[in-house]
Amino acid sequence: MRRIDDPYFPFTPDTAEGMLPVSDGHAIHWFTAGAADGVPYVDCHGGPGGRGNAGLRRLLDPDRMYIVQFDQRGCGASTPVGSLEHNSLQHTIADMEALREHLGIERWIVGGLSWGSTVALAYAEAHPDRTVAVKVGGVWLCRRADTEWWYQGVRRFFPDTWTQFASLVAPARRHDLRAAYHEMINGTDEDMAVRAGQSLHQYEETFMHLEAPLAGPRPDRGLPYARVFSHYATNDFFLRDDQLLADAHRLQGIHVSLVTGRYDACTTPDGAWDLAAVLDDVDLRVVNVGGHYPTERATGGALAEQTTRLLDLLAARGVA
C-alpha cells in the first residue's frame, strides 16, 4: 500500500527480458516494463559502470509508458562482465540502436540520470530522427571542467572526503588523481587495485548524497565499477570537450526535459543551465533543496512530476 503523499509512480514488475548479442563478442541484458501500448522510453543507467535499476521505474508512469532498460557493455548482467575491450560511448549508442530495432520500436523518449543523461543526450544528438523527446536529470556534460571537478574540485565542499580519497596517492601526484587512480586500478598489484576501486566507489557515494543513505557502498561493487568508470574517464568519456553543447543544435524541434538539484555536488547544476541556454525547446527544473540522488524526496519527486509534465506536453502536441 502506498502513502497518500507518495510522489512516485507504483512499481511494476518486468514484462520481458533477454540478452541481445551486439558486436565484438558483447551481449547486452535488457528488460521491459509498463504498458505495451505506451510511449516507448529507454532508460540509460548511470556510472559509467552502473547497471539498469528497476527501482528507478518509480520515476516513470507505467500506465502511459513502455519502459525499456538495459545494462551497458561490461555492466550488470551484460557479457562479458567487466570487459573494457570495444567498450565506449559510441558502442553504447550503437547497442541502443540494435535494441530499438530488436524490440520493434520506431521512435522513443531517451532518458537517464547522471552518466545516463550523458548517454541519452549523445544518443539523441546522433539519432534525432529516432528521438521523440529527451528526459534527463543530474545532467553531466563530461566537459574537462566537469571531470576536473569530480576528481579535484569536490575538495572545496567535501575536504574530508577528498582527503581520504587522495590518501592512497603520493602527495606529489595528487594534482592528477584521475591518472593516479587509473594506474592503481589497472596495475599488477591486485590488493591495491581492490583498495583503489573501493576507494573510488566510496568517494563518489559519499558526495553524491545530500541526505545520508541508509546503507553504505557495497565492497563487491567497488573494483568492477571503478574499472569501467576509470576506463571512460581516462578516455574523456569518448567525447570531444563541449561536444554535447556544440551538437545541441541537432536537437532542434525535440523537447528536452532537464532536472537538476541546486546542491548536486556530483553533476553540478551549471551543466543543466548551460545546456538549456542552447536549446530551443526545453523545460528546466532546478530543485532548490535537491541533491544528486533520485531516492531523495525533493529530487525524486521532481523527476516523477517531470514525467507527467512531459507526457502531457507530448500528448497535447500529438507527438505521443
Describe this structure in words.
This protein is α/β, with parallel strands linked by helices and 320 residues long. It has two domains: 16-142 and 239-317, 3-Layer(aba) Sandwich (Rossmann fold); 144-237, no CATH class. 37% of the residues lie in helices and 16% in strands. The protein has ten helices and eight strands. It has helices at residues 89-102, 115-126, 144-151, 159-166, 177-185, 190-208, 219-234, 243-246, 270-276, 297-317; strands spanning 16-21, 27-34, 39-44, 65-70, 108-113, 131-137, 255-261, 282-287. Strands 1-2-4-3-5-6-7-8 form an eight-stranded mixed sheet, with helices on both faces. Helix 1 packs across helix 2. It is globular. The mean pLDDT is 95.
CATH-level-2 architecture of the largest domain: 3-Layer(aba) Sandwich
- Total domains: 2
Tally of contiguous helical segments: 10
At the fourth level of CATH, the homologous superfamily of the largest domain is: Alpha/Beta hydrolase fold, catalytic domain
What order do the helices and strands follow? EEEEHEHEHHHHHHEHEH
Strand content: 15-25%
End-to-end distance? 30 Å
Shape: globular
Outline the low-pLDDT stretches: none
**How many DSSP E strands?**
8
Radius of gyration: 19 Å
Largest sheet descriptor: 8 strands, mixed
CATH top level assignment of the largest domain: Alpha Beta
Q: Averaging pLDDT over every residue, what do you get?
A: 95
Strand order, sheet with most strands: 1-2-4-3-5-6-7-8
**What structural category do the secondary elements indicate?**
alpha/beta
Helix content: 25-40%
Multimerization state = single chain
CATH topology title of the largest domain: Rossmann fold
